[in-house]
Amino acid sequence: MTVTARGKTPTTAPRRAAKTSASAKAAPSAKAGKEAKSATARTAPAAPAVPRVRSVRAGDLPAVIALDATVTGLHKADYWQRVYRRYGVAGQGLRHFLVAVRGDARDAEVCGFVIGEVRDWEFGSPPCGWVFAIDVDPHCRLGGVGTALLAGMRERFRRVGVDRLRTMLARDNTLLLSFFRSQGMTAGRLIPLEIDISDEAPAPAASSATAAQELR
């Protein structure tokens, strides 16, 4: 205990000491908070790089074939060679085969692809863009790859004056349905119809509708 010259203990000294002690305790906490925040910033995973979208090249085909086989379970090398010749080589501005790649030019890896074309007056509709194939490496999903691919296709369609994009997919393909809806696509005015024309298919049922009779 500190004593003054008069022999009395000051009443304010303990309060100052308590205040100083509180400040001393607060300082390490603030420092620890900064260090924790800095450590979190160092350990947080980096955001995936935005993929580059470009036209397919012959050297991309093995990766495209492998990606398709991973998703569909089918290895269709001959089919993809035909698609490449039609859409990758002879596109001429109306057919497009695009791939999304990550990494530098020398070590770029294909992480997705999209294929589409402009079709004129199909089903009585003015020229519009059709996307008939799109896929993304399962390890690269939720990283903006599909969005970048569809945006690249939209841009190429717009260059030739097309202002509408269509696609078709199976009812039970909820993955693709969710993706296209997230891109703003909704049900269109066209209704797909089909019939089994194999030898074993049953004969179509007779219809009494007036419109159907007029078309026969």
Attribute tags:
5-stranded mixed sheet, alpha+beta, globular, Aminopeptidase, 6 helices, disordered N terminus, 216 residues
CATH class categorisation of one domain: Alpha Beta
CATH-level-4 superfamily name of one domain: Gcn5-related N-acetyltransferase (GNAT)
Detail the poorly predicted runs: 1-14, 17-26
The helix-strand sequence is: HEHHEEEHEHH
Q: Could you say which overall geometry the principal axes of the C-alpha atoms support?
A: globular
Number of strands: 5
What is the CA-atom radius of gyration, in angstroms? 33 Å
Q: Would you tell me the overall average pLDDT? A: 79
Head-to-tail CA distance between termini: 114 Å
What count of helical segments does DSSP give?
6
CATH fold title of one domain: Aminopeptidase
Helix content: 25-40%
So, CATH architecture of one domain? 3-Layer(aba) Sandwich
Helix/sheet category? alpha+beta
Largest sheet: 5 strands, mixed
Widest beta sheet: strand line-up:
1-2-3-4-5
Fraction in beta strands: 15-25%
